[in-house]
Design goal:
Blueprint lengths: L8 E6 L14 E2 L2 E2 H12 L4 E5 L3 H9 L19 H14 L6 E4 L9 H12 L6 E7 L8 E4 L2 E4 L22 E11 L1 H5 L8 E5 L11 H12 L14 H4 L1
Parallel strand pairs: 1-4, 1-5, 6-10
Antiparallel strand pairs: 2-3, 5-9, 6-9, 7-8
């Protein structure tokens, strides 16, 4: 099925260095390629983007990105590359730079490297859903919660207070069978689409009207801890799931 490109759609791949939970996760070798390569390859192969740009503060990451076909116009300023930096900051800064150069993008997508099972077909499917409703501000990937927030608590001193203060009158959620609770969806790192106007009108990367993009396992698998890495290796080694094929030769500096 063909996909028509809108005027000015840019794919943004964030690749900050200095990860704490999994050291150098963006350059971690998975299937012979750095993790970052899977996001770039899927974005390019999807054919929906005018440009695929990697935002990084690392010259090494920039070299990897360019090897796999992405653009790195400039390194990300250090003040937007801390543990507490919000996505809005670096995206707003980058889009502003492009606008000053006379490059206006109608919409952008965020493709985080930590979701290597996301492939070109995932991106095309998400893009088609995003463009199907003109009233939307954005689209965001979600999956069903594995642990229901109706059974979660905050602790004040040594007393439990339900995380969700509004409970049914006849039966508290925390004392009800999980199967009887309403569905709750949690965002994952697979993909986001948003109109650029959200940055300026809402000071947000999502706006107000956000469409749910329900991922199909393992699209939403997100590598943020060592346990996540073990899980990915198990899924691949079991033979039931496979990572997307990368056509580019491995990055030599990492392959040796």
């Amino acid at each position: 099925k063909g996909v028509c490109m809108p005027s000015g759609l840019i794919g943004l791949i964030p690749a900050r260095s200095g990860s704490k939970r999994v050291a150098n996760k963006n350059t971690m070798l998975i299937g012979g390629h750095p993790l970052l390569a899977y996001a770039i390859s899927a974005a390019i192969d999807s054919g929906v983007f005018d440009r695929v740009v990697v935002s990084t503060d690392s010259p090494e990451y920039a070299a990897i990105a360019k090897h796999y076909g992405a653009e790195v116009p400039n390194l990300r300023p250090s003040e937007f590359a801390t543990d507490t930096s919000r996505d809005f900051e670096w995206i707003y800064q980058l889009i502003n730079e492009f606008e000053h150069e006379g490059l206006n993008y109608e919409a952008f997508s965020i493709l985080r490297p930590t979701s290597p099972f996301r492939n070109a077909e995932t991106i095309k499917r998400a893009y088609e859903e995003f463009r199907s409703d003109k009233s939307l501000d954005s689209l965001r990937a979600v999956e069903l919660c594995s642990q229901h927030p109706g059974k979660m608590w905050r602790v004040f001193g040594d007393l439990l207070v339900p995380l969700l203060p509004v409970q049914p009158e006849d039966a508290e959620w925390y004392s009800s069978p999980t199967q009887s609770l309403p569905e709750v969806w949690v965002q994952n790192a697979c993909i986001e689409f948003a109109y650029t106007r959200c940055l300026f009108e809402h000071k947000s990367i999502s706006g107000k009207r956000i469409k749910a993009f329900k991922t199909i396992f393992p699209e939403g698998v997100d590598l943020n801890t060592e346990t996540d890495v073990l899980r990915l290796n198990f899924l691949v080694e079991s033979g039931e799931y496979s990572l997307p094929t990368i056509k580019t030769e491995p990055f030599v500096a990492l392959a040796n």
